[in-house]
Specification:
This protein has 220 residues and is of the alpha+beta class. The protein has one domain. It is 25% helix and 26% strand. Helix 1 packs across helix 5. The protein binds zinc ion. The site of zinc ion has 8 residues, from helix 3.
C-alpha cells in the first residue's frame, strides 16, 4: 500500500452542555473535592478531550448506523472486524491487525485559548478548578423527595467551553478519498445528534462542531 496523501480535518468542539470525560484523582489537586473527576493534563490540570474518547465515540456511532458504514454489529458487541466496511477502512479492523490499516489519527483536543482564559479567570474569581461541580440527587420513589444521602457530585467542563479538534486522515493509492472524508463527516454529524463523554441521557455532552475545515497536507 502506497501512501498518497494526508488530509487534515480540523474544527472546534463547542460544548453546548457540560462535558464529562472521566479521569482519575491521582496527582491532580482537587479543591472542590468531587468524587467524580474529569480527565486533565497532569501538569497544567486543564481538562482536555482524549483523542481515544473522540475516536471511539465516532467509531461506535458509525458502527451502530450500519446503513452508513456497512459495519457488522457483532453479537458480543465488540467493534467491527470485517475488514471491508467503511469503519474498518477508517478506524482499522478490530482484532484483525493486518486486514485493514488505521487511516484516521485523532489528536487529543486541548482547550482553545479563549476557553482556557475564561476557565483561568473563573478559577481566580470563583475558586473553580477549571470545571464546575454538579450535584445530583436520587429521588426517593415513595416520598418523591430528593434523598440527601443519594447526593453525588460530578465534575464537568462548563457549557460554552471549546476544544480544538484535530484529525488526520491518511489516504493510500486507490482509496475513495471523497467517500472516506464523507464518512468521517457523517460520524461528526452523528456525534452532534448524540453526545460525547458520559451521562448523555442526563443532558451532558451535547456538542457542536464549528469551523470544520478539510484540507490536504503536503506529504513532504
Ligand atoms: Zn467492518
Amino acid at each position: 500500500m502506497k501512501l498518497s496523501k494526508f488530509v487534515s480535518i480540523t474544527g472546534t468542539i463547542h460544548c453546548k452542555t457540560g462535558l464529562r470525560i472521566g479521569g482519575t484523582k491521582e496527582g491532580v489537586p482537587d479543591p472542590g473535592g468531587s468524587e467524580n473527576t474529569v480527565i486533565r493534563h497532569p501538569i497544567t490540570s486543564l481538562p482536555y478531550i482524549p483523542g481515544s474518547s473522540l475516536k471511539g465515540k465516532i467509531r461506535s456511532l458509525l458502527e451502530m448506523h450500519s446503513s452508513i458504514s456497512g459495519a457488522e454489529i457483532a453479537a458480543d458487541g465488540k467493534p467491527c472486524g470485517c475488514g471491508n466496511c467503511w469503519v474498518c477502512k477508517i478506524f482499522g479492523s478490530h482484532g484483525m491487525k493486518n486486514k485493514e490499516i488505521t487511516r484516521l489519527v485523532v489528536r487529543d483536543g486541548s482547550l482553545t485559548k479563549r476557553s482556557e482564559l475564561e476557565l483561568r479567570t473563573a478559577q481566580e474569581e470563583k475558586g473553580l478548578n477549571f470545571v464546575e461541580i454538579k450535584s445530583e440527587n436520587i429521588i426517593n420513589r415513595k416520598t418523591g423527595v430528593a434523598a440527601n444521602k443519594g447526593l453525588r457530585t460530578q465534575e464537568r467542563v462548563p457549557a460554552g467551553s471549546e476544544f480544538n479538534m484535530n484529525m488526520v486522515l491518511k489516504l493510500f493509492e486507490g482509496d475513495d478519498e471523497e467517500k472516506l472524508i464523507d464518512i468521517v463527516k457523517k460520524g461528526l454529524d452523528l456525534l452532534q445528534k448524540d453526545y460525547l463523554g458520559s451521562s448523555g441521557s442526563r443532558g451532558y455532552g451535547q456538542v457542536e462542531i464549528k469551523d470544520l475545515k478539510v484540507e490536504e497536507l503536503p506529504i513532504n
